[in-house]
Design goal:
single chain, 442 residues, mainly alpha, 18 helices, globular
Length: 442
């Protein structure tokens, strides 16, 4: 009761914000648990298998992540908006028909990309200095991973935030960690972590179907209901796909280019710093998870004043969650990285630079989510394309000269670039700034 009153005193009696904080609190905890399990898994792999294998492991999972995003065609993000709209308008009879249509489209697209990956696994591995056996192995789970993420986003659209947060943040890494710990006692395999991850994907895909059935079974299936056509759905989703792809490029292209230009050991060391810097991103990611349907709802209703208030207050929340983490990384980077092993301390300055980039995103707030959920996905797409091109160019020139530090600088510069452009556009489009800095009047 006392805590609830303090929250109200700090942010005001804003029902939309309180709903966001309530859902965001659960998401925040899930994100913390997921990241905690991820760090334990990374420490386990780096200490037992070394930076070289960790780099190969990271590269294989990144290729799988790219395949998953491309295979989803941006449709999973559109599903959030559509399902949220059905619930608001009490058109729940359309939910299952839309889900079936989307499932068929994604099953076909993911099967095509899985087959492509399997057939060209040797060429992909050679390009990235990766393990061809790892690339071939991940091709087997492209389909279940795509359907897994579809179920997670569909639950998000229904505002089943706890279930979504568990699937999105915890399930896969927890399953992998458990399988590595148990498998290590039974098998003596140098490839155990990658096999554990693939197995976790399959098991958690089944769990995602169970959760979707649990939360959607009370909705009636009415095939006579008219829902968005497949071609229209793909058309509106492609800009979201491009946006997601560009976000992935900006967040992870440095890993792929480090592997191609330097070696897999550099990938392993740099990824440890990158994973740690994501702790500074946890507030933004947690708020974004619950904010997406809420932004869509307020934009749909035309309640611009409530949308402004929610966006600005959520940015304030993100800022104060992020600041302490960045300060810790600024003062104790070497000590923190040493947990992964002594060789990882060479990424000290990379960790600081990456954390500063996350702090800048926190100051700007949920700009990308707001644009996607308000029908401005084309501008979102165009800005991210420009930023991704900038990021690739910076990595190309900076990595050979500065190696890990060059990758971190490329990430920081491109991150500032797209955040500033989106903040300016939102000001012009909606009439308010999303940014928050203490004592700054907006």
């Amino acid at each position: 009761m006392v805590f609830s009153q303090k929250i109200k005193n700090l942010f005001g009696n804003d029902v939309h914000l309180l709903e966001l904080l309530k859902g965001g609190g659960a998401t925040f905890l899930m994100k913390i648990f997921g990241m905690g399990f991820g760090y334990l898994l990374a420490i386990l792999i780096t200490n037992n298998y070394g930076a070289q294998f960790f780099g190969q492991y990271v590269t294989a999972l990144l290729v799988l992540e790219i395949l998953s995003i491309v295979s989803r065609l941006g449709i999973d993000t559109s599903v959030i908006r559509l399902l949220s709209s059905f619930v608001i308008k009490n058109e729940t009879a359309k939910i299952h028909k839309l889900y079936l249509r989307v499932s068929i489209i994604l099953l076909l697209s993911s099967s095509i990309f899985a087959l492509f990956t399997y057939l060209f696994s040797e060429a992909i591995a050679q390009l990235l200095n990766a393990s061809s056996s790892h690339i071939k192995l991940i091709s087997y789970v492209v389909v279940p991973l795509v359907l897994y993420y579809l179920n997670a986003q569909a639950l998000r659209g229904l505002k089943k935030i706890a279930a979504f947060s568990f699937l999105n943040n915890v399930a896969l890494v927890l399953g992998t960690l458990v399988l590595v710990l148990t498998g290590d006692a039974i098998f003596n395999s140098k490839e155990l972590p990658i096999f554990a991850y693939v197995t976790s994907v399959v098991l958690m895909a089944f769990l995602s179907f169970f959760l979707w059935y649990k939360y959607s079974r009370h909705f009636k299936l009415d095939l006579s209901q008219s829902v968005i056509g497949s071609s229209t759905l793909i058309k509106i989703s492609i800009p979201l796909l491009l946006g997601q792809s560009m976000m992935l490029i900006m967040g992870k292209i440095d890993i792929l280019m480090l592997g191609a230009i330097i070696d897999q050991e550099s990938v392993g060391i740099y990824n440890a710093a990158l994973k740690l810097s994501m702790l500074a991103y946890v507030g933004l990611m947690a708020i974004n998870s619950i904010a997406a349907p809420k932004f869509a709802e307020l934009n749909e209703s035309g309640n611009l004043e409530a949308l402004k208030s929610l966006v600005q207050k959520s940015t304030k929340t993100i800022f104060w969650i992020t600041l302490p983490v960045v300060l810790i990384f600024a003062f104790l980077p070497s000590q923190i990285l040493s947990v992964f092993g002594e060789e990882f301390q060479i990424a000290t300055y990379s960790l600081i630079i990456l954390s500063v980039g996350k702090m800048f995103s926190a100051i700007c707030g949920s700009v990308g989510t707001l644009l996607q959920m308000s029908g401005n996905q084309k501008y979102f797409q165009n800005v991210l394309i420009a930023a991704a091109i900038l990021n690739v160019a910076l990595n190309y020139f900076l990595i050979p000269e500065f190696q890990l530090l060059g990758a971190a600088l490329a990430s920081l510069i491109s991150n500032v670039f797209w955040n500033v452009l989106m903040v300016i556009y939102i000001k012009k489009k909606f009439g308010f700034y999303t940014i928050y800095l203490p004592f700054l009047t907006r």
